[in-house]
Design goal:
The chain is α+β, with helices and mostly antiparallel strands and 199 residues long. It is built from 4 helices and 8 strands; from the N terminus they run H-H-E-E-E-H-E-E-H-E-E-E. An 8-stranded antiparallel beta sheet has the order 3-2-1-4-5-6-8-7. Helix 2 runs antiparallel to helix 3. It is globular and about 45 Å long.
C-alpha cells in the first residue's frame, strides 16, 4: 500500500515537473527589455512620427501589420507583406513592404496621398526594429513588440507592447504593467502576465 502511494506521488511530481518545463518556453531577455536594431532616439522619434500620421486618419481600430505570407508556399522569408484593416475590420494584403510602388495601392486610401510614402517607409523601419503591427486603443497607437519569437500556448504571458507616452499616467495600468522605459517609449505586458526570462 505504501509503495503504491509513493509511486503515485512520484508520478504526480514527475508530471508537474514536465508541465512546468513545457510551460516555460525559451524566452530571451530581450523580450522583457527595449532592445532595437537602431538607436532608441531614432526609434522613439519614428514611433512619434508614425503616431502623428496614423492619428490623422481618424481610425479607432487595428491599422496595419507586417508579416510573411504563410499561405504562399513559394514565399521568400525576406518578403514581408503589409496588411491593413479595411472598413469591415478585415485584414487585407496590400503587397510586399519593400515594393517601391506600394504607396499607390487603393488599400492605403485612408492615408493622405502625400503621407503614404512616409507611412510605408516608417512601417518598414519600425518592423526592422521589432515593432511589426499597430492597433489604436482608446485613441492611442499601441505596437506589438518582438511578436516573431515563438510563443506556443503561453501567448498572453508573452505578448509585449510598445507605446509612446509622456508619462505613466497616460498608460492604462489597470490593463498593463510596465517592464521597461526609454525616453517616451514604454514596454508593456498584460497586467496578469507571468514574466520570466530564460537567460
Amino acid at each position: 500500500m505504501e509503495n503504491k502511494i509513493l509511486f503515485k506521488i512520484a508520478v504526480l511530481l514527475s508530471a508537474t515537473s514536465f508541465l512546468f518545463s513545457c510551460g516555460n518556453l525559451d524566452n530571451p531577455k530581450e523580450r522583457n527589455k527595449l532592445v532595437f536594431e537602431d538607436s532608441i532616439n531614432s526609434v522613439n522619434d519614428s514611433v512619434n512620427a508614425m503616431n502623428e500620421l496614423l492619428l490623422k486618419t481618424g481610425r479607432q481600430f487595428y491599422i496595419y501589420a507586417i508579416d510573411v505570407d504563410m499561405n504562399n508556399v513559394d514565399r521568400n522569408e525576406n518578403d514581408f507583406f503589409l496588411y491593413v484593416d479595411d472598413t469591415s475590420h478585415s485584414a487585407q494584403k496590400v503587397g510586399i513592404i519593400t515594393d517601391s510602388l506600394l504607396y499607390k495601392s487603393k488599400l492605403l486610401e485612408f492615408i493622405d496621398t502625400l503621407a503614404r510614402k512616409r507611412f510605408v517607409s516608417l512601417a518598414l523601419y519600425l518592423n526592422k526594429n521589432y515593432l511589426s503591427s499597430c492597433d489604436i486603443e482608446n485613441g492611442n497607437p499601441i505596437y506589438m513588440y518582438k511578436s516573431d519569437i515563438y510563443m506556443a500556448d503561453r501567448q498572453t504571458d508573452l505578448f509585449r507592447y510598445v507605446v509612446f507616452a509622456n508619462s505613466e499616467q497616460e498608460i492604462d495600468l489597470n490593463r498593463y504593467k510596465i517592464l521597461d522605459k526609454h525616453r517616451n517609449l514604454y514596454l508593456l505586458a498584460d497586467k496578469e502576465a507571468k514574466i520570466w526570462s530564460s537567460e
